[in-house]
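S.,

Sequence below, as promised.
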Amino acid sequence: MDPDGTGTYTLADLTLARRLERAEGRSNVDFVEARARVLPESGAEWIEVAGAYAMFDGTRSPLTQTFGLGMFEPLMPAHLDEIERFFREHGAPVFHEVSPLADPSVLALLNDRLYRPIELTSVMSRRISPDMRARMDRSPRIRVRVINPDEHVMWARTAAEGWSETPELADFTLSLAETSAKRHNAVSFIAEIEDQPIAAAALSLDGGVALLAGASTVPAGRKQGAQLALLEGRLQYAASHGCDLAMMCAQPGSASQRNAERQGFRIAYTRIKWAGRR
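The prediction came back faster than expected:
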């Protein structure tokens, strides 16, 4: 039970960390496999080494890294050799996002090979149930729903428009969103006002864990509660489909983290992203 008595808090331990890291890893595997189907020339692929997933989705993709390193078994030099060779063969830099609950062998080996820390991520979780409601004020005109099979392009364009103030990021987001909408193990949601899409978000389900990601709102639709409505809709959907736990990731101290904490999410741990030598 969490301090405020809502029962949403989950103790952070190795069991929880393994559930969260595996759920995110499998979600990203699903994305990489979708990319390979949609764009075979991308060379997108993944491998599993010592329980960790190493993924290539292009040299600029945030998915090109490992997930779950040291979470399921100790990391040996031969394991890291294999992972580094995988990225080198794709002409990609080497990145590892590491949980503080990973086996101590990970930090020792990364330091021995002169990796450097470059980024922090708050990994948050909360318990969920089908009758939960978000703590929010929102326009009653907003409707949230799962997209239809023929609406992937609309969803992708809505997601990308949320980043329209930064054209280069919007183009990159569009390429990601078009693939994300076609994953096998993910559900895409849209928020509408009078049948006009104003916000988009994604949900992945694995092992009873619901991973929330891909949320954006078009400029004209902001400050009406669309993102909170999408959060509530996704959590209710996940709980009704067998999930007991939700997770999301954010930059430490960001508005995204604060908003999540207002909705009962708590920081389980803070990951460090490590970069290999160039």
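Residues 129-243 form a domain with the Aminopeptidase fold (CATH 3.40.630.30).

Coffee later?
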